[in-house]
Amino acid sequence: MNYGKIFRTLGILLQVEGALMTLPVIVALIYSEKCWFSLFIVSLGAIILGTLLRWIKTKKERIHAKEGFVITALAWILLSIVGGLPFYFSGEIKSFVDAVFESASGFTTTGASILTDIEAMPHGLLFWRSFTHWIGGMGILVFILVVIPSNADDMYLMKAESPGPSVDKMLPKVRQTAMVLYGIYFGLTLLNIALLSIFGMPFFDALCISFGDAGTGGFGVRNDSAASYNTACQIIITIFMFLFGVNFKLYFLIVFRKFKDILKSEEVLWYAIIYGVAVVLVTIGILKDVGNFGTALKEGAFQVSSIMTTTGYSTTDFNLWSSMPKAVLVLVMFIGACAGSTGGGMKVSRCILWFKQIKIELSKFIHPRSVNKVRLEKKAVDDMTLRTTNVYLMAYLLVFVISLLIVSIDGFDLETTFTSVAATQNNIGPGLGMVGPAGGFSQFSVLSKIVLIFDMIAGRLELFPMLILLAPSTWRRK
Asked: CA of 52: how far to CAs of 20, 48, 141, 347, in Å?
């Protein structure tokens, strides 16, 4: 294990996090809020500690896949702990575990909150809370690859942090790929902010909501999430949540004018189909209660976009809906967005591969000697990818079941317990029951919150980095 490289990378992470924390310091000063001092102290401390860690010498700069996974897992744990300190030191969140929960929920773009009165929070902390979505959406290590020189080994970091079955270099160098992806990410965020501002949303709200859209996070700045914004702004939020759930490779192809390759994107096609079908079902399911087709369609489109992309904003308390539309939301909660997007969940591409594997296996029962290959976007999928996809499913179910059993110790109803684990592991935010849009996670025990923090980070990192970090063989000397 290359411990020197691990500490040096974590040092860079702390320096970057400390530097980014200066933005909410400025916001707090603009609004003359006392929380600026807490933010400043944590920012300064992170930069100093990061500088000290970067002084640690290492005999070799190269890392292997194992170090890539370990660095990624430790980075996100450290990121969440340090990010929670301003909430705790300012006194706005009294419990350290609650502060880390809020921070981890932000960076992992989950949007689950322990806060009961969001509007009582200072603007500086509200900005930091939402800004963590934007930082975590594309990935903090991917951001580091943009600002520091890279080498061939950095692909291990990008693969470990980026959501989806696989990550390919779309340009010859990893840093070039990261720069283009962040350029697209930044551009879409600015467009989102501009449109929301033009259509009447206060600028501070537009900033924070756009950070949530971009990272598919869901932290709002109002107690009713997005319900009190006008219809135009709600439609804009719906569209951008959907857009940020698309595989960024599609935008990459648009930027480089590879329009023929865009038409081959099978995952994006199914993403749009699943979204469309879910919107129709939810609209039909709530039409009787809403009484107006236009309103039902708007609410259905917004909530499906929010839950499927794992953003978590709400314009209504869908906890009060009938069983059918709620069942649809739970289903898309697990499916999630596209691989290579900022969204969470199992990913549409994995669901496609599982469906095709089932189809082929059923065919073999009828024609035992037939030879069929699983294909995605007209390309044969290699056995390694299929094996990793299937192992992911088993690991997902294992983590889900263990988390469910531990959280159930708190004694809440099954709907609350089940969807609280589903909402955190899939990085969604709100669930059903006590953790619905009008509820929160403050009522859970410290043990359950720690488990849910683990689920949020594990879900954001596609499970494997966190599981590898905990595996004894990772630390065993050969």
From this structure: 18, 6, 19, 39
Q: Within 10 Å of residue 262's Cβ, how many Cβ atoms?
A: 14
- Taking the C-alpha atoms of residue 378 and residue 375, their distance in angstroms, rounded to an integer, is 6
Q: Phi and psi at residue 379, in whole multiples of 5°? A: -120, 140
pLDDT in tens, the chain (478 residues): 777 888 888 998 999 999 999 999 999 999 999 999 999 999 999 999 999 998 887 766 666 777 888 888 999 999 999 999 999 999 999 999 999 999 999 999 999 999 999 999 999 999 999 999 999 988 777 766 665 555 545 555 556 555 544 444 444 456 677 788 888 999 999 999 999 999 999 999 999 999 999 999 999 999 999 999 999 999 999 999 999 999 888 888 888 888 777 777 889 999 999 999 999 999 999 999 888 999 999 999 999 999 999 999 999 999 999 999 999 999 999 999 998 888 888 999 999 999 999 999 888 888 887 778 888 877 888 888 889 899 999 999 999 999 999 999 999 999 999 999 999 999 999 999 999 998 899 999 999 999 999 999 999 988 888 999 998 888 776 5
- In DSSP terms, 380 is beta-bridged to 375
pTM higher than the cut 0.90: yes
Contact 115, 455 (CB under 8 A): no
Amino acid in position 132 = T
Token representation of residue 221: 């700045």
For residues 266 and 377, what is the distance between their CA atoms, to the nearest angstrom?
5
